[in-house]
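User: I'm writing a tutorial on reading structure tokens. Could you give me a worked example: one chain, its sequence, then its tokens, then a sentence or two explaining what the tokens reveal?
Assistant: Sure. Here is the example chain.
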Amino acid sequence: MSEEINNVTPEHRAGFVNIVGNPNVGKSTLMNDLVGERISIITSKAQTTRHRIMGIVNTPEYQIVYSDTPGVLEPKYKLQQSMLEFSEGALIDADILLYVTDVVEDPEKHKAFLERVAKETVPVLLVINKIDLLKGNGELEQLVAQWHERLPKAEIFPISAKEHFNVDNLKNRIVELLPVSAPFFGKDALTDKPARFFVTEIIREKLLLNYDKEIPYSTEVLVEKFDEKDTAIHIMAVIYVERDSQKGILIGKGGEKIKQVGIEARQDIEKFFDKKIFLELFVKVEKDWRNRENKLRSFGYIE
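And here are its predicted structure tokens:
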């Protein structure tokens, strides 16, 4: 353990705060707001988050290690099984658990997972997101009562992550609940993921935004070259699809569709690294990769 990690006060607090819940309730938006950086990609589509992604907040007094997880789902293929295991694993190693729901979600959705959350012995903070969508008329009070029945031990925080409403109060409570501990990561760490990971996530976000139906869910991105200089980075990335027909749709007539993805991704990657980016994208077919264990392992879904 480094001298930097050891050199903290005896009262220093640190802990793992894991964010779980169903798809599309705003977990990634909340994670980014809590961390103060754009760590997780955000789209309006379900299953945007595929990995467990850590975002680390450091002050002299504490270190919070947030984890964004994939939305809970019923797996239909091996990729989704790996995604569910990331979410279930977050129940095991949490010091504090944030269960995120929203004002339109059916509380009965994935009831078995919710029952596991109810049995947790660590502090559970139930976050009701998107309250800016409520019209009033006692709707919030009804929701709070409804969720209190399902998670009676949880503290309830109505918030709007998008509008940053009540997020500071949530963060203050998290700090209060942190156990006394030395930091788990260096005090300058922001995440546990390498730079290449964020390149793949940004490209995948643009695929989700630019294509419909099954196409974005059938894609995976792998960075094959990441050549970083003082002022610029040269990146070569491969987008994998499952069928030849998907490859044609992805590239588009005269390469226009993939060119648009490249432009949008390059702009965001430049903002992320604050450097000039040279981005090359290639498309390859890897048949049925979502059900092939060796491919899921090479893409980082299975250890």
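What the tokens reveal: The mean pLDDT is 89. The CA atoms of residues 56 and 65 lie 5 Å apart.
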